[in-house]
Amino acid sequence: MTFRRGRGQATVGAVWHEAVLHLGGLARDLAAQRGTMRRGRGGFPRSLLELIQGGEGALALAREAWEYGRGLVDQQALDELARRKLAYPLKRVRLLAPIPAPGRNVFCLGRNYADHAAERGAAVPEHPVYFTKPATAVVGPGDPVVHHAVTRELDYEVELAAVIGRGGRDIERAQALGHVFGYTVINDVTARDLQKRHTQWFKGKSLDTFCPMGPVLVTADEIPDPQALAIALRVNGQVRQSSHTSKMIFPVAECIEVLSRAMTLLPGDIIATGTPDGVGAATGTFLKAGDRMEAEVERIGVLANKVVAP
After folding, report:
1. How remote is the C-alpha of 138 from its chain's centroid?
2. Quick check: 242 and 115 in contact, CB under 8 A?
3. Are residues 175 and 211 in the same domain?
4. Domain, as residue range, for 282
5. Which tens digit of pLDDT belongs to each residue from 139-163?
6. Distance (Å, rounded) from C-alpha 213 to C-alpha 210?
7. Largest CA distance in the chain
8. Are residues 152 and 82 part of one domain?
């Protein structure tokens, strides 16, 4: 996760029970014990994006800090660990988008569930359909989603997102999941009227705050099969979308394979894999200021955001 305490800097952490482990602080503490302190943080990456780009060495450092921190939380008072800047109560930190500032646009899949294509009156695509959302649209869990005045048809779309860990080009499907660092949740917020007006998807999906992401990034070893996850979205507690990632037309591995053909994917690239049926546009039930959205993917968690007026 990426988290912040008060007005402090964004920091890389991990969840253990109801505690947030400060991985950089834990790495620094370990390095001090060993007499190998470097760069003031035990050599730990400054951001989750930097950790991903650091490859296996950075991930090994994070896992070592994680194991050390789990042991401390199980044996010591959390208030004392907070004083030492090693761990904090989860309820006392603010979670940000796991990657608050992606290195480039977020890649997205359109119409990747047959039921969603049908409810929108579209044919099932023969090949993956890609578009992008700009990095400037990314917000985190709990952040407001602005109902900009330019739209009267604000909609939601819960999606599983894969984050590339090992870059590459022309990645074979059989090896594709080995290039994934982890998975998170994205709400592909959309202005349907702008989408129709401009006859393409980019503008209607790219307004500021239209890419909530989080609450955490779960490493790929925890989700060996991304096609085995329940996926749902609620508005004000009412279930609007309820499906399963096994219903994707193009599974995650195929999405990576096709996207990487003659195009290099980079560590930290984010691929949102499409939404199931149940969107507001299918019934004309659009979002309004005050609505609370809860996008959920099994084994990752709930991404909650409230719609606010401009």
Report:
1. 10
2. no
3. yes
4. 106-308
5. 999 999 999 999 999 999 999 999 9
6. 10
7. 64
8. no
Q: Could you tell me what percent of the chain has a pLDDT over 90?
A: 94
Q: How far is CA 181 from the centre of its chain?
A: 12
Alpha-carbon gap, residue 60 to 54, rounded angstroms: 10
pLDDT digits (tens, 9 = 90+) for 183-239: 999 999 999 999 999 988 999 999 999 999 999 999 999 999 999 999 999 999 999
For 162-181, how does the pLDDT look when each residue is reduced to its tens digit (9 = 90+)? 999 999 999 999 999 999 99
- The CATH number assigned to the domain holding 68 equals 2.30.30
Q: How many domains does the chain divide into?
A: 2
Same domain membership, residue 273 and residue 135:
yes
Of the candidates 55, 22, 52, 25, which has an alpha carbon nearest to the alpha carbon of residue 40? 25
How many CB atoms are closer than 10 A to CB 50?
Answer: 14
Mean pLDDT of the chain: 96
Residue 111 shares a structural domain with residue 160: yes
Let me know whether 187 and 300 are in one domain: yes
Residue 193 CA: distances (Å) to CA of 148, 258, 285, 309: 12, 29, 13, 17
